[in-house]
Design brief:
The structure holds two protein chains of two kinds. By secondary structure, chain A is of the alpha/beta class. Chain A has one domain: Rossmann fold (3-Layer(aba) Sandwich), CATH 3.40.50. Chain A has eight helices and ten strands. A six-stranded mixed sheet of chain A has the order 6-7-8-3-9-10, sandwiched between helices. Chain A has a four-stranded antiparallel sheet with strand order 2-1-4-5. In chain A, a hairpin with a 4-residue loop joins strand 9 and strand 10. The C terminus of chain A is likely disordered. The radius of gyration of chain B is 22 Å and the shape is globular. Helix content of chain B is about 80%, strand content about 0%. Chain B has one domain: Orthogonal Bundle (MetI-like fold), CATH 1.10.3720. The chains are: A alpha/beta, B mainly alpha.
Chain lengths: ~260, ~290
């Protein structure tokens, strides 16, 4: 169980990127964070990863506080971030250094087969296409079998076809050992394809705004009416999250009133 | 311009300075893309580089033989070869070449050690950069020969002063290269190391070292080039051995063939030593994406 308790992040320059985020995620659950730009969704993900610990509140995994990168938490970034000087196989095995060589090779081979890149094991990262590189990054993050996998807009740099392909692939891999997935995206359809729960965030300061549970049966049909229904709900929530008149913060009311006058 | 900006432009300048010196020779060998399997092409391609020097030598030889020039000030290749052979027979050439190689070798090692350490510190720590870099850039601008009298006063007229002069020459390009490379290691790649909880030493071994290696090799080559220049400056001013001495000796005794022989020896040793670095580094740089595959 991953628990966020009143997590907030204030940068040294005084900007409040995140405030009062509380959330519990059960093992194996898929939670997707959506929201306008600057709503702190990436900040929240980085706080959970331990790369940029929160300045207020705390993150705990099974009761243990997360203040630095943790062995049970893996992360996949927007870019593949493969190490260009390692072959594809060595990239996948990057997090397996403590294991004996035979075990490492076995797990790497299995992971590469799982993402359909066995024949690329000895290739350099530069020889891969964008989609292949991101698959290698997914394999690298999954190979140590994390309990929680964080994904920061992992498919946003890919074309629509590759993206849909990788979404299915990710679900496939997830089904292997069902880690918790927490994903940031700005693609609403992607959110609905993947999520058990969609968290809509809003900005200034970043916080959770609305929660939409989705129990559509998998695999999810992007064309179905039920899919469309959830999509409308999410879009409506996103709309509300961007609506300035809802802002309760007094100072920002004035700011928006001023902006209205100005325009 | 704020400090980070300043720093970035400093790094950019370093890279530009460094690459300008070596760029031309970077592409020509040992970027070991798997060579095309045709064996003939594999041997022919380096042979292309020999056409120009051999053609010029042959042309000059013919010109002298035909009496178009008396070849007194610019001796024809046959005379140079026989001078080389004579020098080699008496053992002079080997002795002088060995003396020069010995100086360059030690100077290079010292300069590389210093440049690597100081460069890594200045690249890693912004404070060290602000403290050290202005002074070092100032010293870098001092012409090599300007150090000679001072080093002779400090370290005597024998080998120590020469080696230190060469080390100074090697130090600066290596410092610049390492500093620039360390300062510009991709933060995103370092973050991958953090996400996998690498310890400090593991981070250096598995992320930082491989990341700076290409720029490091480039700076070593630039440093070696300067080492060969500085050895000449050292040997011009008070040496009784070395290829530089052979040059001066040839000038004073009016033996142009000996001068050219020394120059040719410099060219060959310089090229071979550079090639040695490339050769040693090649297996570690196979991953690099090369634009111009020749």
């Amino acid at each position: 169980m991953l628990v966020l308790d009143c997590v907030g992040k204030t940068y040294p320059n005084g900007v409040r990127a995140l405030e009062g985020v509380s959330l519990s995620v059960a093992l194996g659950e898929i939670v997707v964070l959506v929201g306008g730009s600057g709503c702190g969704k990436s900040t929240l993900l980085r706080a959970i990863s331990g790369l940029d610990p929160p300045t207020q509140g705390k993150v705990t995994l099974d009761g243990a506080p997360i203040t630095a990168p943790h062995e049970k938490i893996g992360i996949i970034f927007q870019e593949p971030r493969l190490l260009p000087w390692l072959s594809v196989a060595h990239n996948v095995g990057f997090g397996l250094e403590p294991y004996p060589k035979v075990e490492r090779q076995k797990r790497v081979a299995a992971a590469l087969a799982r993402v359909g890149l066995s024949e690329k094991a000895r290739a350099w990262p530069r020889e891969l296409s964008g989609g292949q590189a991101q698959r290698v990054a997914i394999a690298r993050a999954l190979v140590p079998r994390p309990e929680v996998l964080l994904l920061d807009e992992p498919f946003s740099a890919l074309d629509a076809f590759t993206r849909a392909d990788l979404q299915d692939h990710l679900l496939d891999l997830w089904a292997d050992f069902k880690p918790t997935l927490i994903m940031v995206t700005h693609d609403v359809e992607e959110a609905i394809v993947l999520a058990d729960r969609i968290m809509v965030m809003r900005a200034q300061p970043g916080r959770l705004f609305e929660e939409i549970a989705s129990d559509l049966p998998r695999p999810r049909d992007r064309q179905s009416a039920a899919f469309d229904f959830v999509k409308r709900r999410v879009l409506a929530a996103l709309d509300r999250s961007l609506d300035r008149t809802l802002v309760t913060d007094d100072r920002q009311d004035k700011a928006s009133a001023g902006a209205a006058l100005w325009w | 311009m704020g400090p980070p900006m300043l720093r970035r432009s400093a790094v950019a300048i370093c890279n530009a300075v460094l690459s300008a010196g070596v760029m031309t020779s970077v592409a020509d060998e040992a970027r070991t893309e798997p060579a095309p399997p045709r064996r003939l092409a594999r041997w022919l391609r380096p042979a292309l580089g020999l056409i120009l020097p051999l053609g010029l030598a042959l042309g000059w030889e013919i010109a002298v033989r035909l009496g178009l020039s008396n070849g007194r000030l610019v001796p024809p290749p046959s005379v140079i070869l026989s001078t080389c052979a004579d020098l080699a027979r008496t053992g002079e050439l080997q002795q002088h070449a060995a003396a020069t190689l010995w100086r360059v070798g030690w100077g290079f090692l010292l300069g590389v050690a210093g440049g690597t350490i100081v460069g890594a510190v200045a690249g890693y720590s912004a404070l060290a950069f602000r403290l050290l870099d202005p002074t070092l850039q100032g010293l870098r601008a001092v012409p090599s020969v300007a150090w000679v009298p001072l080093f002779i006063l400090w370290f005597g007229i024998f080998e120590a002063s020469k080696i230190i002069l060469i080390a100074v020459g090697v130090f600066f390009p290596v410092y610049l290269g390492v500093m620039g490379a360390v300062a510009s290691v991709d933060r995103k790649i370092v973050e991958v190391g953090r996400a996998f909880r690498l310890s400090g030493p593991a981070m250096i071994r598995r992320i930082l070292l491989p990341a700076v290696l290409p720029a490091y090799v480039l700076s070593l080559r630039a440093g070696l080039g300067l080492g060969w220049m500085f050895v000449l400056a050292a040997e011009f001013l008070g040496a009784s051995s070395g290829l530089g001495f052979l040059l001066i000796d040839g000038q004073q005794l009016g033996k142009p063939a000996q001068i050219v022989a020394a120059i040719v020896a410099f060219a060959i040793l310089g090229k071979l030593s550079d090639w040695l670095i490339v050769l040693i580094a090649a297996p570690f740089l196979r991953w690099e994406d090369v634009v111009a595959r020749r």
